[in-house]
Specification:
- This protein is mainly beta.
- It is 14% helix and 47% strand.
- β1 and β2 form a beta hairpin.
- The longest helix has 15 residues.
- The chain is globular, with a radius of gyration of 16 Å.
- The relative contact order is 0.19.
Length: 175
Amino acid sequence: MKALAVTLLALAAPSQIPKQPAKDLFMHTLKAPGVEVRFVDYHWQPALFEAFEAGASIPEAKRNWVVARVILDDRPLTLGTARVPVGNYGLVLWPNLDGKGMEIEIRHVDMREVYPNLNALAPAPRGETFYRGRAAFEKVSELQPRMDVTLTEGDDRVTLTIRWGDRRQVLEFVR
């Protein structure tokens, strides 16, 4: 049954995925002490995200996407059990290529290679991986028509929350 659903999604998704990039996107910057996050407010595209979740065989769902830039300029942070040193990072979303689910990666990269064209979700350039783990996008009832990221701090923690469409991913960094 799951294989049938993935096959149907793969056949249906290409017709629902926009062929032309959006021209009304903006770069946003968030700051907390020692942490800066930059992201583009990409439009919610449910067919594309579902293809990414399913690992459908369309080109857009077979590569990673850099969804944000994370800059640590004060001190290292810990995500899970991984220590992330001061530096520039891509917050990378990996598709479900192995049937085990999507993954999130924190990769040290030269960010000049990531956002040359704000109108497309860029693949991550080469760089050192400091964290990679399962993505935990939960479905929520409120629809966010564009990607939105929040950055909050408290109790020696920095919480980065990605809201996109009817999905939410929370990453909690420890100081």
